[in-house]
Amino acid sequence: MRSLLLPVLGLLAACMPPPPPPRPLVVDNVPYGANRQAARAWHLAHGWCVRRTWPTTDEFERCDPRPQANPTIQPIFTIIRYDASGGSVSYALFTPVQFLDPDRGARLHWWESKTNPDHEFVDPASGLLTGLASRGRAISQPSYPPEEEQWRLFDALAAELDKRCGKRAWAEDRGWGAIWHTKASEIGLFIASNGHWIIETHELELQPAVTAH
Description:
The chain is of the alpha+beta class. The protein is built from six helices and ten strands, in the order αααββββαββααββββ.
């Protein structure tokens, strides 16, 4: 019986599609400790533009000379903070949610429509703040689950973090956010307070918790 099963199992394995490649994380491309010049060089060489800078922070926006098919889709952007020695210590990546019906996305009446997606994480005067995962966890969210497009993107991004980091250290019951711990860092994934971005944070050192505003 076993001799008959082996060819069948082999045939099934041959017919199955290969597993998807790992999703690269921001820390794969710009590892912790990368100096500011190296971080800028990588982004500029891979289709990113410098958007804003502060004494200890750089913000990069995905720039594409081709016109977008849907002009309502906002660009992806990344914010990196450096320590006193100039090495990168924390990252916040903002991936826009693409709503199937842009008008429905614009009608998310439970959000402050003019709220910047980074306002819990960035001080306009000094750049990326510390304690990113705690700040994401403190975002005030509705009492009902996310929209379909939001949770689909959230789950797609979370899959790689689950695979690499294992069990979630914290997860919001309705699906608005999650946190993972590694030996050296704290990682967060959150739906932005304006509902139109998924924010992925990576921070080298665990920071003191902050309270919600």
